[in-house]
Amino acid sequence: MLFALAAFGYANHATAQRADQNAAREAEDAFGVSYANESVGLYYEEDIRGFSPLDAGNVRIEGLYIDQQANLSYRIVDSSIIRVGLTAIDYPFPAPTGIADFRLPDAPEALVLSPRLNAGTFGDTSAEFDVRAPIIGKTVSITSGLGVYRNNEWFGGTPKSFSGGVSFRWRPTPDTEIIPFWSLDKTWSEEAVPTYFTSGAFVPPRVRDRGRYTGQDWATNTSRGINTGVIARTKRGDWSLAGGLFRSIYAISRDRTTLWLDVNEEGIGSEIVYAAPASRYVSTSGEVRVTRTFAEGPRLHRFHASVRARNQARLYGEAEAVELSRRSIAIRAPAAEPSFAFVERTPDHVRQVTGGIAYEGRWKGRGSLNIGIQKTDYRKHVRPPGRDVIVSRDKPWLLNLMGSLDVAPRLSVYAGVTRGLEESEIAPDIAVNRNAAPPALRTRQVDAGVRASLGKLQAAVGVFDVRKPYFNLDDANFYRRLGEVRHRGIEGSLSGDATPFVSLIAGAVLLDPRVTGELVGDGTIGIRPVGTSRSRIVLALDVHPERWRGSSFDVQVTRHGGSFADQANAVRLPSRPTVAMGVRHRLQLAHRDVIARVQVTNLFNTYRWIADSSEGLTYSSGRYVWFSLATDIDG
Q1: Which of 295, 402, 584, 633 places its Cα 20 to 30 Å from the Cα of 351?
Q2: Is residue 553 within 8 Å of 545, Cβ to Cβ?
Q3: What is its main location (predicted)?
Q4: Which contiguous run of DSSP H or E holds residue 54?
């Protein structure tokens, strides 16, 4: 294994590329940043202030809109950054659920090969190989990579996957850039995470052997995701033009889900496997934005005109349920796979076009302003087999307004309001109308806060109020609107260099989630949404004294606050802290630097139950030790 990393005969030492990526040392704040192999922060792509920007459609590539259906591969993506609160003030047309912005690698100045080998104590192994190289000087460059994975899971699943992609940067002139890209992710033999539904107001007994798979060998999934696109940017004087056209495809050729129903306090339940026909989710989307930028003394002005559009088609079908033996959730009972006769599938189609104008202004030493207005035309057609076509339309005006004021040289305050039109989560597996997608939701957000520079540390504290229609299961397990959900809270971030050799990321969010509506008023459901944690605290330290010569020690403590496991709010899941520790050691192998990385997650083997929004329960991963060897080889 060590020889594989040293077998490339290039003379120069490695430079800071994939091998040196360190989230704790490179994060600008504590709100969230992710790289291919690690992440840090309060939020991530599927959870900002208790909501998912992926489900809401608030994803960007290099700041441009994409209607993402398949995950973006880190073989072509360098990082993802969460933009929320004041960190979103430089984005035209921000969104109430926050923005997950994916960044592509910069153009390389020289050939860099980045091999990486990974292994973990669950028995999982993987190999990744990335290439970044100029092709024609500074005019054309390439980024490419592939990875193969045996992803043994914490619950005993053994999926296999492949990830690959390629992107080019073409700069025909210094002020013009064109970036085409393509990526493919394939997964097969993927067992679904078992989900447990209890028969009363309690949680199941603890699963002692968390790594033992108790489902059926044939209850596996096969899927592939493809993302293709092109980004083009150019600048002429005060004017700039940016555009992106993307096609995202997620196809599931084999779809099986394992649920345990009516689990009692002794851990006895009924194993149910849901089998669904092949499904396909495709979207062509993009954005064109024209910007004029000019300075007026200490004031900088930007005017934007933008058009965004998407054409989304989904095809899915009803699942067949296979009820197997009733037994302990800790015991496996293999059974033969039955044959399935799936019914006709349901197509739905969304077309949306949004036009908008925006202004960004900055006055040095005084403050900034971001104001935008958009008009969107949303149409959705659902054609259930044997039923009338369901049509929904909406044409709202959307407004965003945010301003900041510099009250002192290193202190600023901000406030803002944002309106949005977002997609809702699809109906969960246990729903009668599984996979159904409700119409788009009108959402709104108000937030305010303060940001301060404390030497080499950056601090921010903000308050927010986000409101959306609330969709969940009713008494008949039909997924529909039950009222309105409001997430009100306070969030804070402290980041930077605490000392010359200690990088600090500290963040906290305290959330007051609340549901209102007729079913809350009559006592059918409680006031707290299911599965939404009321707090999260993250503290990460990276210690790297100069005398360690590039080696470092890191620790991350995360505390997940309590949440409710049922709509009646009768079962509360307690908070649980988890601790991760790791080391990076820079060693010399064949006269080049190699980074050896060891990390232990869930150091104290903390156990907790986690509830999803449909009252399904899963258990957390146990202690896990991860090891990797990586290097960057310059040509």
Answers
A1: 402
A2: no
A3: membrane
A4: helix 53-56
Give the model confidence (pLDDT) of 249-275 as tens digits: 999 999 999 999 999 999 999 999 999
How would you label 147-172 residue by residue, b for 16+ Cβ within 10 Å and e otherwise? Answer: bebbbbbbbbbbbebebbbbbbbbbe
- To which H or E segment does residue 345 belong? none
The DSSP code sequence of 261-305 is: EEE-TTSEEEEEEEEE--EEEEEEEEEEEEEEEEEETTEEEEEEE
Alpha-carbon distance of 211 to 153, in angstroms, equals 8
Q: Which of 151, 167, 160, 161 is nearest to 185 (CA)?
A: 161
Domains (ranges, CATH) in the chain? 2-634 (2.40.170.20)
Across 72-94, average pLDDT: 89
Predicted local distance difference test score (pLDDT) of residue 635: 67
Whether residue 472 contacts residue 614, with contact meaning beta carbons closer than 8 Å, is answered with yes
**Within 13 Å of residue 45, how many CA atoms lie on the same side as its CB?**
18
Residue scoring higher pLDDT (85 or 457):
457
Task: Judge contact between 425 and 613, C-beta under 8 A.
Answer: yes
DSSP code per residue over 214-256: -S-TT-EEEEEEEEEEEEEEEEETTEEEEEEEEEEEEEEEEEE
Which H or E run contains 24? helix 23-26
Q: What is the pLDDT of residue 430?
A: 82
Answer whether 414's CB lies under 8 Å from 448's CB: yes
Using CB atoms within 10 Å of the CB of residue 107, give its burial: 0 to 12 exposed, 13 to 18 middle, 19+ buried. Answer: buried
User: Quick check: 583 and 553 in contact, CB under 8 A?
Assistant: yes
Q: What is the pLDDT of residues 523-549, one digit of tens each?
A: 888 999 999 999 999 999 999 999 998
Structure tokens at 582: 């790791």
Retrieve residue 317's tokens: 């079908």
Q: What is the pTM of this model?
A: 0.91
Pairing of strands 576-589, 552-560: antiparallel
Residue 536 neighbours by CB distance under 10 Å: 21
Max avg pLDDT among 23-37, 251-265, 424-438: 251-265
pLDDT reading at 587 higher than 60: yes
How far is the C-alpha of 624 from the C-alpha of 607, rounded, in Å? 13
Residue 440 has pLDDT above 50, yes or no: yes
- Host H or E run for residue 518: helix 518-521
Cβ-contact 437, 316 below 8 angstroms: no
For 52, which DSSP code?
-
Whose tokens are 């008023």? That residue is 521
Classify the C-alpha dihedral 563-567-568-571 as positive or negative: negative
Say how many C-beta atoms besides its own lie within 10 A of residue 224's C-beta.
Answer: 17
**pLDDT class for 17, splitting at 50, 70, 90?**
low
Residue among 172, 147, 142 at smallest CA distance from 161: 147
Structure tokens, 492: 């804070």
Specify the higher pLDDT residue, 403 or 13: 403
Residue 530 DSSP one-character state: B
